[in-house]
Prior knowledge:
The structure is a homodimer. Helices cover 21% and strands 36% of the residues of chain A.
Amino acid sequence: xxxxxxxxxxxxxxxxxxxxxxxKQFLKIFDNGECMLQRVVKQIRRTNSxxxxxxxxxxxxxxxxxxxxxxxxxxxxxxxxxxTFPSIALAAAYLHEVKRIDLNESIIVCxxxxxxxxxxxxxxxxxxxxxxxxxxxxxxxxxxxxxxKYGYIIPQTADNISRVVTFKEKPNLADAKKFIAAGALWxxxxxxxxxxxxxxxxxxxxxxxxxxxxxxxxxxLPNISFDYAVVEHEKKISVVRYSDEWKDIGTWxxxxxxxxxxxxxxxxxxxxxxxxxxxxxxDVPIICMGLRDAVVAAGPEGILVSDKVASSYIKPFVERLDxxxxxxxxxxxxxxxxxxxxxxxxxKVTLNRGSRMRYHSHERRSEVWxxxxxxxxxxxxxxxxxxxxxxxxxxxxxxxxxxxxxxxxKIIEVQFGCDITIDDKIIWQEMN
Amino acid sequence: xxxxxxxxxxxxxxxxxxxxxxxKQFLKIFDNGECMLQRVVKQIRRTNSxxxxxxxxxxxxxxxxxxxxxxxxxxxxxxxxxxTFPSIALAAAYLHEVKRIDLNESIIVCxxxxxxxxxxxxxxxxxxxxxxxxxxxxxxxxxxxxxxKYGYIIPQTADNISRVVTFKEKPNLADAKKFIAAGALWxxxxxxxxxxxxxxxxxxxxxxxxxxxxxxxxxxLPNISFDYAVVEHEKKISVVRYSDEWKDIGTWxxxxxxxxxxxxxxxxxxxxxxxxxxxxxxDVPIICMGLRDAVVAAGPEGILVSDKVASSYIKPFVERLDxxxxxxxxxxxxxxxxxxxxxxxxxKVTLNRGSRMRYHSHERRSEVWxxxxxxxxxxxxxxxxxxxxxxxxxxxxxxxxxxxxxxxxKIIEVQFGCDITIDDKIIWQEMN
Lengths: 432, 432
């Protein structure tokens, strides 16, 4: 059994704490400091010890995946953001061509956001076995209310394994009620099939199933989900029923249900607050008074204050925002924009012990590095020099430079110029 | 007629946008960009053209008073924060000894937070005249509900001018209801008396009415309000009735009633928000969803999210906060702390055109000035040098330094040291 873990996604619904780079699956929300990605991977390993996991993710999230999981996983990075069908097709092509997996091998596709007990993942064996009978197998979740957010599966019988009569993605409320009355299950976002099945679909719908070609034409592939592209058109589907608690933690409303604590960070709330969650990732205190059924989330990118139910509808508001990323965690450390002026940008850069920047230069800006913590070495135009807290290094336009953190380093970097952009960076291979 | 305008106050109830330095009367909340201080001063001048105004304020607020009002007012600065009785006594001593005001002259004491029409201030003439009949005259506000926040005045008659039967500061709800049923008025915080009257009280209660002595022993004076010290013990009081709209804008709940707009700064709110005010003085966007009867205020010091009524009770929560001031407006410009580490502090300093720092040095920290906008001159250890955006100046421990802004200057100042405090500053008079 091969498992494709879908760990892409923009995380806009968990703004301001997640963004294109720092997505929801990386938020450390659990008591033990773990994020969803770590939790799901652990659960899969506990329940499917023989399974091999491949993580389908966005190119720019690769450093974070490695930071949280190390280097031991196979990765299928998307060159750009597409929906689940292209992403699954690309990962399948990778399994076939690079990992040499047999076309008859069972593949399980699993998203990274189900917050469930281990027995959810233990059902993967059942799904994998069922692929012998029907080309496509889904996981059906016993629904708790007529949600408009999920896909609905109507099974032939109420058995634990059943053939599927109808599948409908995100119906309106009236239809959702009808489906539930007819014994429908929510689509849990798990798909099982033989490797050859999805490669056939890629051939038919995308014109190719070749790994290299898919990578090359990825930006031109249709932005379509596996549900719409494949599931809605498949006649022979089985569903495996799952009746225990299931939460997808893709919105603040559902995420707060699984948080270990009602408040994280510098927070005070008065005694009249009820069902309030406050996640404060900013560096200033928050005071909350008289709030009910609400979520407050603050970080370097912004502040959300929302009724919990209303918070599910945040996406269009986030889309309207200026998309400048003000904070990001990277494999080498993190950066945070702390001041913006018309002809300068001030950034706090943190480098982990042993990490280094790439050797680079800028054409349209000079920089000053104010070292405020740690020790390390800089190389500027080929010359190496030791630096420590208190040192100040000026980097004129065009100078080639890098820094190596021998101890964790913190730098206040002041950039000067009338045209400061992230594109203004030339990478140099040699150091001298 | 002499008017003492009380413009001290900690502004804790309007946290995070006001603090010990930047108090509520300086918040620019009106359409025309004015603050309460400017509004009240204009109203007094319009309605009492012959009156002379003396502003009783905190020492550290003097620069802001000058910034908003210029240099044309008499100031009576308190050496430290005390309540209204010491503050009024000090201002009275100033009027007597420095301004040589006659002991029989009528004095009107007026706080800076009544949000009212001009006819409120027009009544000052009536109060001043009434001082001939009773030693103490109050302004009585027709109450609108049994508030526990105000003092209650029970007049003998329902006439526009009446003798006072009883005065009670901040009663409980039951008593407040009884008082209102008995025809009570709220105490509007206006006191009228002859100059000699309050100097006598100072002599009796504080042991002196001499200006220099009061200044010298100010820190040891009792922290007592004029209401408790004088009004509650005076047998002969008159009250002048005011029946029009009156608001004290000392809390978010009342302040938001007079705000020109429901949102200030980068704010998005969804269609389900109602009776919501958002004041965003931070540099990140705020999204609000599904909030009712609430106020959100964000700035460099913190974030408040509160039900409007509950917001009146914020004070104890603010008192529990770390009191480090992260942002302040000064007569010469402003400063904002943008990064805090154990052995460094990064501050954005803005200097207005023509302003300068005092010539100073530090014993336990070095500094780096990264000039990010403007032009000016620095003097370091007696040597003058022109600086402009892009320049970086290192100031070792002990170096004497200042900067003069020839054009508006912006500096990212990085402070290095393991013991960074605001006390570590030695002021030097000579420049070379």
